[in-house]
Design goal:
This protein is 45% helix and 13% strand. By secondary structure, the protein is of the alpha/beta class. Among the domains are: 196 residues, Alpha-Beta Complex (Spore Coat Polysaccharide Biosynthesis Protein SpsA, Chain A); 27 residues, no CATH class; 100 residues, Rossmann fold (3-Layer(aba) Sandwich); 110 residues, no CATH class.
C-alpha cells in the first residue's frame, strides 16, 4: 500500500463528502486506502460515508475522544508507505499526492511535509508553515508583535514569515490540516500524544519527527483548499483555553523546568488576557448595534415629543419627566425586543424581519396603550410616530453598516443577488434547480463553460457570487482564480459534483450561507427562537386562563406540571412522535429538540396509524409555527 489517508470528522457531512471526492480523484495511479474516523457526529456523516463511499475504512466512535485519539485509531491499522492526516474541510488538487510522494522519494531526509494552503477566499493560510513555539516566539504571538512585524525573522517566527510563501523550505511545525509522514518516520516517532484533545498535537508530532532525526518540509509546489471551519470558534473561551493549554502541555514536555514554569506563566497570562479581550469584544459585538438603535430611537422620540408638546399642547413642559425617562425607554425596549424576536438582529440582515418585528411591537404598544387608564395615556401619536421613526432609524443604521462593509450587514436580499456560474450547461441547470427548490431567483445569472477564457473575469466586479461547478473545473484552476481575485469582493462557492449543496468559506460565519434544501430546518436560529417564544407565551397564557380551562381538562393532574415544565425549558408543547430522533428509522438524525407535551402525530388525532417518520421529517425540515398552534388547539383539553 503506497498511501493511507486518514480523516477525522465531526459534524461536517457536506465538507467531508466533498473532501472524499477530491481525495479519490487525486489517487489515480496510487495504491491508496482511505480511513474516516467519525467522533460521534449527529448530522448523518456516518450513514453518508456508508452509502456513498463503501470503499472507505470507517471507524464510527460512540463518543468524541478527541482529534489525537481518533487519528491514532486509524494509524494503528493503516498500512501505507506514506500516511496523510487530512482535515475534512479540505480539497486536494489532482496532483497533490503524486507531488508529495515524489518529494519524499527525492529527499530521504524528509520525515514529514505540508503543502500550500489557500482558504475559500483565495488567501494564503500562514498556518501552512510554522516555527517552533519557544517562549520568545510565543510571546511575540501572544503580545501581537507578530502582526506588526510579520516578516521579521524573530518576531514573525511563529509563522516563519521571513520564508517566501512560494519556495520549498525546511520548517519546524506541520499543520494538522495536511500532515504527511513517511512510514519509517512514523515508526521512529510513534503515535500522536493523546494528552492533547485538540490543537497542539500537530506541534508535538512535528517536533518528535525532528527529534527522530528527520526534517519537516513546506512544499508550495502543490496546494489544497482549506475552508478552515474551525475559525468560527477562535473567539470562544473554550478555544482560547484549549489552544493555549495545549501549548502549556508542550512546554512541560520539552522545555527545561525553569523554562517550562516561565512559559506556563505566560500561557496563563495569555488565557486571562484573551478572555478579558474576548469578553469585551462579545459585549461590543452583541450590544453595539442594539445600543445604537436605542440611542437613535430615543433621540427621535424626544424630538417628536418636543414638537408635539410645542405645537399640539402648546406647552413645552406638557409631558412629565417620568414619561421622558421611563415610559419612552420602555416603548423603545419593547420595539427592539420585538425586532430581536423576529430575527432583526440575525446575520445576514433581512430588512423585512426588522420591519415586521418593530411593526408587531408598535401594534402591541398601541393595544396596551388603549387598555391604560386615562391619566396614563400620554399620547398615541407619539407612540405611532416614534415607532415609525425607530423603524426608519434601524434601517438607516443597517444601510450605513452595509456601506461600511461591516461583516453580516450587507442588506441586499438573496433574490436580488447577481451570480456568475462557471461550468457546463448540464451542471448549470442542476444549480438552477437547487436555487428553485430554495426559492432563490436567478434570472439575471451569467454563465460560462470556458473557465480558461480570461474574458469572463471582467464580469467579476459586477457580480455578488461566483459559483464553480467542480465536475467541470479542476481544483487547481479554482485555486488559481481564487488567488488571482482574493479580496476582490465577490463570494466564491463550489457546487460539488453529485451534491445538492453549495459550499463556500462564508459558511463559517453564517450557516445560512450554506445553501441546502433544508433552508427552513427547525435548527435554524430564528425558528428555535420562535418556537421557544411560543412555548413561553402559551405556558403563561394557559396558567393565567387555568381558572377557566382547568376544569375541562381530561388529565387534570398534568395541567400545571406541563405548564411549568414548558416554562422552565424542560419540555416543549410539541415534539417528535418518535422517541429517538437518532433512530435508524431515519435516513439522517433529526435536529435535537425538547421532548413534547404533544407530538407531531397529535396533529391527526383521528388517524390510528399515521406515518410517524414522515410527520417528524416534515416538522424538522420545514418548520412552521402554525403547526405548533394547530396541534395545541386540537389538543387544548388534553394538557
Amino acid at each position: 500500500m503506497q498511501l493511507s489517508v486518514i480523516i477525522v470528522n465531526y459534524n461536517v457531512k457536506h465538507f467531508l463528502e466533498q473532501s472524499l471526492r477530491s481525495v479519490f480523484a487525486a489517487t489515480d495511479g496510487i495504491d491508496t486506502e482511505v480511513w474516516v474516523v467519525d467522533n460521534n457526529s449527529t448530522d448523518g456523516s456516518v450513514q453518508m460515508v456508508r452509502d456513498k463511499f463503501p470503499q472507505v475504512h470507517l471507524i464510527a466512535n460512540s463518543d468524541n475522544p478527541g482529534f489525537a485519539t481518533a487519528n491514532n485509531q486509524a494509524l494503528r491499522q493503516c498500512s501505507g508507505d506514506y500516511i496523510l492526516l487530512l482535515n475534512p474541510d479540505t480539497l486536494v488538487q489532482r496532483d497533490t499526492f503524486h507531488t508529495c510522494i515524489d518529494f519524499f522519494r527525492e529527499h530521504p531526509d524528509c520525515g514529514g511535509l505540508s503543502v500550500k494552503m489557500i482558504n475559500g477566499e483565495g488567501q494564503f493560510l500562514k498556518e501552512s508553515k510554522r516555527g517552533f513555539p519557544s517562549p520568545a516566539t510565543s510571546f511575540y504571538k501572544i503580545s501581537g508583535l507578530i502582526k506588526l512585524f510579520p516578516r521579521n525573522k524573530k518576531m514573525g517566527a511563529y509563522y516563519m514569515g521571513h520564508l517566501d510563501d512560494d519556495t520549498v523550505n525546511e520548517v519546524d511545525v506541520l499543520p494538522g490540516a495536511f500532515l504527511m509522514i513517511s512510514r519509517p518516520a512514523l515508526e521512529k516517532t510513534g503515535l500522536l500524544d493523546e494528552s492533547y484533545f485538540m490543537y497542539g498535537e500537530d506541534i508535538d508530532f512535528s517536533w518528535r519527527i525532528k527529534l527522530a532525526g528527520y526534517k519537516n518540509y513546506y512544499l508550495p509546489t502543490t496546494r489544497i483548499l482549506h475552508y478552515k471551519g474551525e475559525s468560527t470558534r477562535k473567539s470562544s473561551m473554550n478555544y482560547v483555553y484549549t489552544f493555549y493549554n495545549a501549548m502549556a502541555i508542550f512546554a512541560k514536555k520539552y522545555f527545561s523546568k525553569g523554562g517550562a514554569k516561565t512559559y506556563t506563566f505566560l500561557i496563563q497570562l495569555a488565557i486571562w488576557l484573551r478572555a478579558s479581550i474576548d469578553f469585551l469584544k462579545r459585549i461590543f459585538k452583541h450590544l453595539a448595534v442594539p445600543a445604537l438603535d436605542f440611542a437613535v430611537s430615543f433621540a427621535g422620540f424626544l424630538a417628536i415629543k418636543q414638537i408635539w408638546s410645542t405645537y399640539w399642547a402648546e406647552n413645552v413642559n406638557y409631558y412629565p419627566s417620568v414619561y421622558t425617562w421611563v415610559i419612552i425607554p420602555i416603548y423603545i425596549l419593547i420595539l427592539l425586543l420585538a425586532s430581536w424576536l423576529a430575527g432583526g438582529y440575525d446575520k445576514p440582515v433581512r430588512v423585512w424581519r426588522i420591519v415586521q418585528g418593530m411593526s408587531v411591537g408598535a401594534l402591541c404598544l398601541l393595544v396596551f396603550y388603549s387598555m391604560l387608564s386615562e391619566e396614563l395615556r400620554f399620547s398615541r401619536a407619539i407612540v405611532l410616530l416614534g415607532s415609525l421613526w425607530s423603524i426608519a432609524a434601524a434601517l438607516g443604521i443597517r444601510g450605513l453598516l452595509s456601506l461600511m462593509h461591516a461583516d453580516g450587514y450587507h442588506i441586499a436580499p438573496e433574490r436580488g443577488r447577481r451570480y456568475l456560474v462557471v461550468g457546463s450547461n448540464e451542471e448549470t441547470d442542476r444549480l438552477f434547480e437547487l436555487f428553485d427548490s430554495l426559492g432563490i431567483e436567478h434570472d439575471g445569472a451569467s454563465c460560462t463553460n470556458d473557465n480558461n477564457d480570461p474574458a469572463w473575469e471582467g464580469i467579476l466586479p459586477k457580480v455578488d457570487e461566483v459559483i464553480f461547478c467542480s465536475r467541470d473545473i479542476p481544483i487547481h484552476r479554482i485555486l488559481d482564480i481564487l488567488q488571482q481575485h482574493a479580496g476582490s469582493g465577490p463570494i466564491f462557492r463550489i457546487l460539488p459534483e453529485g451534491m445538492d449543496v453549495l459550499i463556500g468559506s462564508n459558511y463559517t460565519s453564517s450557516p445560512e450561507d450554506l445553501y441546502t434544501p433544508d433552508f427552513n430546518n427547525i435548527s435554524n436560529v430564528t425558528n428555535r427562537r420562535i418556537k421557544r417564544l411560543f412555548d413561553i407565551v402559551t405556558a403563561l397564557l394557559l396558567t393565567v386562563l387555568s381558572p377557566l380551562l382547568f376544569w375541562f381538562q381530561k388529565r387534570k393532574r398534568r395541567y400545571f406540571a406541563d405548564c411549568f415544565s414548558v416554562l422552565l425549558g424542560r419540555k416543549s408543547w410539541v415534539g417528535y412522535s418518535h422517541i429517538d430522533s437518532h433512530s435508524e428509522d431515519f435516513d439522517e438524525p433529526l435536529p435535537a429538540i425538547r421532548r413534547g407535551v404533544f407530538r407531531t402525530r397529535d396533529r391527526m388525532p383521528r388517524v390510528k396509524n399515521p406515518d410517524i417518520k414522515r410527520l417528524d421529517n416534515n416538522y424538522a425540515t420545514d418548520y412552521k409555527i402554525g403547526t405548533d398552534i394547530t396541534i395545541l388547539l386540537l389538543n387544548i383539553l388534553k394538557i
